[in-house]
Amino acid sequence: MDMLKWIFRGLIIVFVSYIIYIVGYPFMVDVSSLKKKNPELTAMMKYRIKQWERDGKKIKIKKMWIPVNRVSPYLVKAVLIGEDDKFYSHSGFDIEGIKKAIEKDIKEKKLKYGGSTITQQLAKNLYLTPSKNPVRKIQEAIITWRLEKTLSKKRILELYLNVAEWGEGIFGAEAASRHYFGKSASELNAIEAARLAASLPNPIKYSPVGNSRFIEKRTNLIYFIMQKRGIIKEEYTEPEEKDSVPVLEEKQEEKELPSIQKDESVQPQLK
Predict the structure, then answer these.
(1) Which residue ranges traverse the bilayer (predicted)?
(2) Exposed (0-12), middle (13-18) or buried (19+): which is 164, by Cβ within 10 Å?
(3) Beta strand pairing call for 170-171 and 62-63
(4) Considering the entire predicted model, what is its pTM?
(5) Which of 66, 129, 134, 189 is 20 to 30 A distant from 102 in Cα terms?
């Protein structure tokens, strides 16, 4: 009996310690330092480094910091449209987006669609792992709440644009822009910005300069929305190739602008 009591007490101690870790860790990360200090290596970067070492890949991280006010307005708008269209109106969580994602998950009987906001993505990128277990989601929610309470929207967006994964070993808008288009993120035009934003759900699988159906469709939709909102003044000329997908697939009224549903089944980064 004494042995069973000790085992029971031991299990209770382990359980309580685990609960303390789940709730405590999100409050231990130094969110306040992000007000002025730019992060060096994020949790996502460290995760990738270990992954490359395990797979025997010799890949180096490419990242270059750029202030958000120097990033092309086209890219800022494209990312907001593609990843979090309600960024400036919510407090870290898009309840309607989460509800729609849950409904689709239930309908398809799998954890596939995500309603993660830019702040939630940033929380995962900075401090957590790619796992989708409930523990990580609880920690993500707490860190998201802390980020929104501590940092301005402008700073959150700046951090996101500089740590988001945009390809194997490529992190941040500046490194991505130079890698794919040979120019600074400040010089991106509307279609280049739309292509970069379109690849964010799965930057490892889909290249912004690739011709996959996934990238073409998302690029078209993001570009179309930017154009209908008056962000883009010039008209985009459709490609001459018969097999190419035109940027403007169909005419729609402003009030009927489509929303972009994010599919987490193709999302390896901390999103």
Answers:
(1) 6-28
(2) buried
(3) parallel
(4) 0.80
(5) 129
8-state DSSP, 114: E
Q: Name residue 161's amino acid.
A: L
Helices 73-83 and 153-163, packing angle to 10 deg: 90
8 Å CB contact between 187 and 70: no
Q: HSE (CB half, 13 Å, CA atoms) of 210?
A: 17
125-146 residue pLDDT tens? 999 988 878 888 899 999 999 9
Q: Which residues of the chain have pLDDT under 70?
A: 1-2, 5, 8-10, 14-18, 21-23, 98, 101-115, 234-271
Q: Which CATH superfamily, name and number, covers 41-229?
A: Biosynthetic peptidoglycan transglycosylase-like (1.10.3810.10)
Q: Which residues of 71-90 are buried (b: 16+ CB within 10 A; e: fewer)?
A: bbebbbbbbbbbbbbebeeb
What's the half-sphere exposure (Cβ side, CA atoms, 13 Å) at 9?
6
Count CB neighbours of 99 within 10 A.
Answer: 11
Burial class (CB within 10 angstroms; exposed 0-12, middle 13-18, buried 19+) of 223: buried
Measured between alpha carbons, how far is 67 from 70 in angstroms, rounded to an integer? 5
CA separation for the pair 30, 26 (Å, rounded): 9
Task: Identify the burial level of 13 via C-beta atoms within 10 angstroms of its C-beta, where 0-12 means exposed, 13-18 middle and 19 or more buried.
Answer: exposed
- Distance of alpha carbon 24 from the chain centroid: 24
DSSP letter (8 states) at residue 171: E
Are 75 and 183 in contact by the 8 Å Cβ rule? The answer is: no
Distance of alpha carbon 73 from alpha carbon 231, whole angstroms: 9
